[in-house]
């Protein structure tokens, strides 16, 4: 028997559990430990609430969760409720699948002003993450700036643009929906420090921006390279750039999502709260990098959402790569018996599906490097340790109760109304 602890119940965690289950069959017991009483990590809290079809992958994870050799252990935080050394004593292998839930800093003056918010916090807020329940983003001004030209920037701009009716069928939380409905935004400026050929937005998601009810994207034709240059792009990027070309011709709507390319933020200004971001015009070099031209200008914005990437929080006792913002590892191996998968291994890139081969690779490594039959105790040992500390674990069956309560209180047409605090989640369980 191999006893494996997977920390984190997002896509990386469940794909790893699935791969271990296939590889070791009945000769494995896997505990998926999560600090929250609810599973699925990024699927629940990262994927946009209006992209429900992507969230459907959680059904696959549920199939894994419902097997006998895998169990969900919610409401248990590594580093607070138990240590990495204690896990090593109990399990043959420990796999960190903790994702990258913290925002990378912009590193410019003024980023601590009220109204400057990282995308992890902003996305967490509209997706009902308990850590961001009280965020209260300032939505009462006409201008918003979104920094970065990746898919998260697109999610943020689209969510800020949509009308209440366009959220039909989504699971955006009721408080976020009400706040967005009362917002007075007229212009969202998406700031890209490089040019249209350097965007990290995928075509399907970018195309959505051209079909919103009250909001129209806007691109300055002068920013686009000559159309012949698109031929050299990789096909997906070429399609995305084709959308940007379409956006130069769209008629205006009451709200504008303006792409401002070659614009690097250099500081944020305001009297106690963000009022504008100062950007420097940049110039591309032949290798796709940029340098500043010295020309600066102000983009007004009372809310500034930086969508420039994420980092994995360190865990005491686990080697950490500060520069990369993730655990120090070689192909998933951190130290003997200790592995990382997903964003905690390779940083915040790739799609949800990228985690599948990741999980498989770590399962294979465990098969080759970690012998079974070591006599470690696994589950009963964990239960004894947690119960001695007075920690009530949340099981998968418990989660199904929370889920049923969320479904029961959903508004018309919505799949669920999420509980947005730990207390409310645990209270639903007690009912
Ligand atoms: P990303 O794709 O890496 O994009 C980050 C953006 O931030 C880039 O445009 C980058 O520009 C810019 N940036 C970084 N540092 C900056 C700075 N200091 N100042 C200004 N701009 C800066 O990251 P992401 O958007 O957070 O997405 C993370 C991953 O999740 C990606 O793989 C993404 O595709 C995926 N995702 C997918 C979806 C979906 O619907 N399919 C939705 C959300 C996320 P440079 O290129 O110049 O560095």
Q: How can the largest sheet be summarized?
A: 6 strands, mixed
Low-confidence stretches: none
What is the CATH topology classification name of the largest domain? Rossmann fold
Summed up, the domain count is: 2
Our estimate of the beta-strand percent is 15-25%
Question: How many individual β-strands?
Answer: 19
Total number of helical segments?
15
Can you tell me the CATH architecture of the largest domain?
3-Layer(aba) Sandwich
CATH superfamily of the largest domain: NAD(P)-binding Rossmann-like Domain
Shape: globular
Helix and strand composition category:
alpha/beta
CATH class label of the largest domain? Alpha Beta
**What is the topology, as strand order, of the major beta sheet?**
3-2-1-4-19-18
Helicity range: 25-40%
Keywords:
431 residues; 19 strands; Rossmann fold; FAD/NAD(P)-binding domain; 15 helices; 6-stranded mixed sheet; alpha/beta; single chain; globular; 31% helix; binds NADP nicotinamide-adenine-dinucleotide phosphate; 2 domains
